[in-house]
Specification:
By secondary structure, this protein is an alpha/beta fold. It is built from eight helices and seven strands. It has a seven-stranded parallel beta sheet with strand order 3-2-1-4-5-6-7, sandwiched between helices. It is globular.
Length: 235
Amino acid sequence: RVLITGGSRGIGAACVRAFRALGDRVVFIYRSRTESADALCRETGASCIRADISDGGECVGAVRRALSVLGGADVLVNCAGIAEFSLFQDITDGMWERMISTDLTGAFRVSREVSRSMISEKSGRIVNVSSMWGEVGASCEAVYSASKGGINAFTKAMAKELGPSHIRVNAISCGVIDTEMNACFSEEERQALADEIPLMRFGQPEEVAELAVFLADQKASFLTGKIITLDGGML
C-alpha cells in the first residue's frame, strides 16, 4: 500500500510506475495536471486524488481519503515540490510562503497523517524526495534550498522518533534530474550544467524511483535516518 505525493509528473510519476510494476497498490496525490494524472491512472492502474498539499484542509482530507482507499499505508513517498529561481533580494513573502508551504509544510502534514496509521500497525517506510541544494545551498534558489534543508533535518528527526515503532525514514537528495523543473534551461545551459557532473549527464526520474523502491524494500531494513545523495558525483 503506497501513497505518493506529486505523482502526476516527473519523479513522482516515475515512482508510481515503479511501485505499480511490483504489483503494489498505489494512490497518488496531484495538484493540477488532471489530464496527466488520469492518463497515468489508465496506464498503471493506480488511483489518484486531486489536492493542493499547501492547503492544510485539502491536504489532510486527501491523505485521509487515500488511507481509506488503501486501508492504511506501508510506504509514503513525499515527492510534491515546486521551485523558483530568483535573486534573494527579489524574493517576496508570497514566494517564500508558497514554496515552504508546498515543499516543507506539505511533507510535514502528509507525514503526520500517514505516520499515525503506521504507528498503529508498528510498521512503515517513509521516503522524502529532497535535493542536493538542501545540503550545500544554491545561488538564486535560497527558498528552495531552505525547504530541502528542512526536509533533510525533518527526515533525521522523524527517523529517531518513529524508529521504535519500526518505521524507517530516509531521504533522496537529488542532483540535476531531467524533469520539467529544469525545463527553464536553454540547451547551452543544460550542457554547461552537465559538464559540472562527473557522469556528464542529468539523472533520470526512473533512477530516483528505483532508489525509492529500494529504500521501501526489506533489503534496506536496517537503513534509516539517511540523506542519500543521488547526483552523479556533482557534490
